[in-house]
Amino acid sequence: MSQSPSNYEAVIGLEVHVQLRTASKMFTRVAAGYGQPENTLTDPVVLALPGALPVMNKEALDKTIKAGLILDCTIAPVCKWDRKNYFYPDSPKNYQISQYDQPICVGGSVEIELPGPSRNVMGEHKKIPLTRIHLEEDVGKLNHGASDSLVDYNRAGTPLMEIVSEPAIHSADEAFAFLTALRTAMVQGGISDCDMEKGQLRCDANISIRPAGETKLGTKVELKNLNSISFVRDGIAHEIRRQIAVVTSGGAIVQETRDYDGQTGASQSLRSKEMAHDYRYFPDPDLMPVKVDEAWQAAIRATLPEPMFDRQRRYMDQFQLPYTLTSVLVPQLALGAFFEEAAQLSGKPQAAANWIANDLLRELAAAGVDLAGSKVRPTHIAGLVKLVESGIISSNSAKEVFVEMFATGDQADAIVGRKGLQQSTDTGELERWVADAIAADPKAAAGFRGGNEKALNAIKGAVMKASKGKANPQLVDAIARKQLEA
User: Fold this and answer.
1) Are residues 134 and 10 located together in one domain of the fold?
2) Which regions in the chain score pLDDT beneath 70?
3) CB atoms closer than 10 angstroms to residue 248
């Protein structure tokens, strides 16, 4: 008798290719880049002309070591280069320089956060172990037309990391969280821009299912052409459902490679994969092994950014920020640094965080500019917070000040002075406004005296209207209570 879908467990391993952000390609001085006319970023090394020899790009090695340190990998004391032999038009040499049995990074993990019960609640955190990270050169790109296929070698030779996870992911949500966290770590480390539309981050997923409680791996299916993180999640969810449907109907999973179409949500078989390819790896005779000593590692370790989730935990502990604010502030290093400076200058971390996460990001999005292009700097936020906290302006007036501050770049106190937005703290004037409001609304006054706290809002609202919003709300509240209780 077949099992129900809930009795199956998915087992997923990801192979993630990350293009490094370097000035030049992996084994030549020719520029690395995107969007240039076809076949202009080439030279004799890229095109594999006779006699052209490779020379290693140290920046690419530095960034791969940095990626490994960020992800808690063991950095190999010696790594070497191998030729991965295959014949395909995107590889002009008919082999790819890669790393086979001695990769530069071994082990490590990626910390992920799974969706919580709501957007306002932190989800479960866990670490997904990695098998390895190795460094290689990218291949060219085939552009398929109606009657022909053309190859562009601009991408060929670009430094490329392959980050391989253990088969330790068990849901589409976990895969999505893995890629999101990995992408953030690589961007924050300055290692890659990870733009999937430009091919800077590419992912293949190996997916199998097995009965719950089983330890043996099932027959795996490789899913390709997952060209956005959302499509990775959707494609894996689709493949898990497909495999369960096959097995529960009495069929068997065939080891194959499938193509997933994110637009239609369907997949199709590309080719069967009965056994591993024999790439006939052998050491590259033109490249020497690389020794990575402790001094090299230490120099790179000194440049590591604080991990995103460590920073989030620190913000919650040190600044007493709620999860909702920290989850907005930590994904961008620049935004986190902006907040920390504003928090220090204002002395009010939560107030500064609220202005940044809500008002500043809203205005930036509406204006279509990034943080670097904003006229509002941490000193502006701190100045505005101090004006509100000291009671010089009301919260409503502060909203008006912020919009003006964003548009002009003027400091908050200058805008307040120019617009005359200071709150009135003249108790004599406030007492007259309160007395007039009580006299004008005896029903509200009687309601408050009868125990209806909400009735006081009508009195306070009348005072704020009379003062054109300049009355200090706290003083109005205190004076109104005193007069009504007299």
Assistant:
1) yes
2) 1-5, 273-276, 424-426, 486
3) 14
End of a domain among 400, 419, 438?
419
| Contact status, residue 194 vs residue 200, Cβ threshold 8 Å | yes
Query: Which SS3 state, helix, strand or coil, does residue 244 take?
Result: helix
Please state at what angle helix 294-301 crosses helix 58-70, rounded to 10 degrees. Answer: 70
Residues 191 and 66 sit within 8 Å (Cβ to Cβ)? yes
Axis-axis angle for helices 395-408, 378-389 (nearest 10)? 160
CB 99 within 8 A of CB 284: no
DSSP 3-state of 64: helix
From the CB of residue 413, how many other CB atoms can be counted at a distance below 10 Å? 16
Number of domains in the chain: 3
Q: Tokens standing for 34?
A: 């995107």
**pLDDT single digits (tens) 286-344:** 999 999 999 999 999 999 999 999 999 999 999 999 999 999 999 999 999 999 999 99
- Write down which residue in 384, 419, 454 finishes a domain: 419
Going through 104-156 in order, the beta strands assigned E by DSSP cover 105-106, 109-113, 125-137, 141-144, 149-152
132-165 pLDDT, tens digit per residue, is: 999 999 999 999 888 999 999 999 999 999 999 9
In this structure, which amino acid lies at residue 367?
Answer: A
Q: Would you tell me how many other CB atoms lie within 10 Å of the CB of residue 191? A: 22
CATH number assigned to the domain comprising residue 452? 1.10.10.410
Question: Distance between CA 29 and CA 31 in Å, rounded?
Answer: 6
Domain residue limits at 387? 306-419
CB within 8 A of 273, min separation 6: which ones? 222, 255, 256, 257
Max Cα-Cα span within the chain: 100
Positions of E strands within 189-322: 201-211, 221-226, 256-261, 266-272, 282-283, 290-291
Using the Cα atoms of residue 189, residue 195, residue 198 and residue 202 in order, give the sign of their dihedral.
positive
